[in-house]
TrEMBL record:
GO biological process: GDP-L-fucose metabolic process; protein N-linked glycosylation via asparagine
UniProt KW Transferase keyword: yes
Organism: Laticauda laticaudata
Name assigned to this protein: Fucosyltransferase 8
InterPro entries linked to this entry: Fut8_N_cat, GT23_dom
One Pfam short name: FUT8_N_cat
Family: Belongs to the glycosyltransferase 23 family.
Lineage, uppermost ranks: Eukaryota, Metazoa, Chordata, Craniata, Vertebrata
PANTHER family the record matches: ALPHA- 1,6 -FUCOSYLTRANSFERASE (PTHR13132), ALPHA-(1,6)-FUCOSYLTRANSFERASE (PTHR13132:SF29)
Gene Ontology molecular functions: glycoprotein 6-alpha-L-fucosyltransferase activity
The UniProt record lists the keyword Glycosyltransferase: yes
Domain GT23: 154-230
Keywords from the named record: Glycosyltransferase, Transferase
Length: 230
């Protein structure tokens, strides 16, 4: 087992020795894997150079998530491609690939652990928690404002009927999607749920109403939503 505290070690540890597969379809696949490892090493080096200039703001968080996703995709790619090689060569190669997959799994878990610690260093974890809390409060205030207009009769509305031909979880997803559209188009969501299959008395008999002041769909004009913002 080789050390695995960086992609540099990952490259040199897991690189398939020259001459083990030198011809046929397998050779091209092994070459592609080696290129992926080199690219991953370069990305980590670029990250090290950038972190000195990036603060704990939006750019830092985007970069952290990009690296995390990149590591996961790197693992999925290697796992998939190496499994394909098992169908191309003999038993010895099968054994080598099984061992390599096991080692790569260790590497992936180690790197993900390091990334977690990175996300918590120098106050980044506390910053992320604060940003999430602030964003939550902002969204909650905005929803409260949109869902409780001063004059319901003049408010722009989005009418959503919960009775869809699917299961309970699907219908709750539908409500969330309606909320997202209403939020994005700056409208008050009117949720129609009478004779709902899971609560015939309606949404309000089991959950809090989506509005305290505006539950009437009436307005000066109505029409089917075209999917465009207006």
């Amino acid at each position: 087992m080789c050390p695995f505290n960086s992609f540099t070690h990952l490259y040199f540890c897991c690189r398939i020795p020259d001459g083990s597969i030198d011809q046929g379809p397998a050779a091209g696949r092994v070459h592609a894997l080696e290129e992926q490892l080199i690219k991953a090493k370069e990305q980590m080096e670029n990250y090290k150079q950038q972190t000195g200039d990036v603060g704990f703001g939006k750019d830092h968080e985007i970069l952290r998530r990009r690296i995390e996703n990149g590591v996961k995709e790197f693992w999925f790619f290697l796992q998939s491609e190496l499994k394909k090689l098992k169908n191309l060569e003999g038993n010895e190669l099968h054994k080598h690939i099984d061992e390599l997959l096991s080692d790569l799994g260790d590497h992936e878990r180690s790197i993900m652990t390091d990334l977690f610690y990175l996300s918590q260093t120098d106050g980044a974890g506390a910053w992320r928690e604060k940003e999430a809390k602030d964003l939550t409060e902002l969204v909650q205030r905005r929803i409260t404002y949109l869902q409780n207009p001063k004059d319901c009769s003049k408010a722009k509305k989005l009418v959503c009927n919960i009775n869809k031909g699917c299961g309970y979880g699907c219908q709750l997803h539908h409500v969330v999607y309606c909320f997202m559209i209403a939020y994005g188009t700056e409208r008050t969501l009117i949720l129609e749920s009478q004779n709902w299959r899971y609560a015939t008395g309606g949404w309000e008999t089991v959950f809090r109403p989506v509005s305290e002041t505006c539950t009437d769909r009436s307005g000066s004009t109505t029409g089917h939503w075209s999917g465009m913002y207006h």
